[in-house]
Design brief:
- The structure is a single chain.
- This protein has two domains: 17-109, no CATH class; 127-190, no CATH class.
- 41% of the residues lie in helices and 5% in strands.
- It is built from eight helices and three strands; from the N terminus they run H-E-H-H-E-E-H-H-H-H-H.
- A three-stranded antiparallel β-sheet has the order 1-3-2.
- Helix 2 packs across helix 3, helix 5 packs across helix 6 (127-141) and helix 6 (127-141) packs across helix 8.
Length: 194
Amino acid sequence: MQGETTPVAPRDFSVRYEYWRQFDSLTIGDIAWMRHGIDPRLEDELPDWANSDLSHEIEMLVAAVHAGTVEVTDLLGGAGPKVSTRVKRNARLFDWLREKGWNTVVVGLDVPMPSQSGASTRAPVSRHAAQEAAILAELARQGHDPLVLPIAAPGKPGVKALVKKTLSGSTGLFAGATVFDKAWERLRASGAIN
């Protein structure tokens, strides 16, 4: 019909981890954007309502650099860590990210990195960790902050039900009747979701 417009699909700002895995270091700012489920390369294209305050994540990463918990590639002439400081993508970073509950970023970035001998240096991921990471990744894909999940409207399925429905049919990780619920409760108990 004349005058009708075709609806435009919303832009997908989710992190393209396959791109970021090629780097052996990332900036503090890159990691902070990934924590919010946004690809750092797309930050300039975000609509105003979608801009995120990254100050908390940046402060946490800067503190980890000061404490020596994560390794940096260079502090640029002795200046203190800042948003552009590059952090090594290694086991120390992944351990810190897991400790902070940033499992989605770990799963996205943690792929086998060849060692000097050519053998993989990555330890196998446990089934529980894979289930939890899948839930966190789906929450991020749906645009939810795992620490501030919305309350379901009366008569409507909640976030948990929607994530369970999506993951139950897409992966073999949640084969049993109660497997998803147990993984969800592990995440709640660890404080990774509220």
